[in-house]
Amino acid sequence: MNKVVANADEAIRDVFDGATIMIGGFGLCGMPENLIRALVRKGTKNLTTISNNVGVDGVGNGLLLAAGQIRHHIGTYVGENKLLEDMVLKGTIKLDLVPQGTFSERIRAGGAGIPAFFTPTGFGTVVAEGKETREFDGRTYVMERGLTADFAFVKAWKGDRQGNLIYRKTARNFNPMMATAAKVTIAEVEHLVEVGELDGDQIHTPSVYVKRIFQGELYEKRIERRTVRKVVSGQ
What is the pTM of this model? Predict the structure, then answer.
């Protein structure tokens, strides 16, 4: 089955106002930047986004935030985004912060069809407020719900025309889990190849999870925070 679409704009043609979207990436690594830019152009509103963070000011998911398209975000980290911090403090966006391991497992559970699970993480803190708790073997656990979405935007290094995906190093991050947990998974890739060119033993996301795929046009590969060693006189 050929799942290739011409570009990001065609790939997101049916993303609707009020949709819940999982967006891969960790900081600025492995984020589907072509899909994000296309969504900004489309102007879809009242989105619930599920991603580790909301990019940085003017980059990645930060573009959606600046355009006023996100009403609710579920993630683990406010990060370097000053606009998000300001919006949260002013109450203009709903933010659910989730411990990162719990966040990962909630997505994995959603993709596996598991509605909820128990974890010790967060017990005795604000994370557990309003949630069911239960004791197992003398330790108290918090019940967390699995996460699913209408759409998942993922970014891979290589993909074939059927939608099999290979991610590269740290850029794998949340992408494989999110690809399993949405009704419609859309993948952008750096290299789109013919069926049979990928080593089957190296495939991270099988094609069964991917509905649409395209080759991205522009990858900026920015550094979220650049640090350099101070030069010491005489060295």
Answer: 0.91
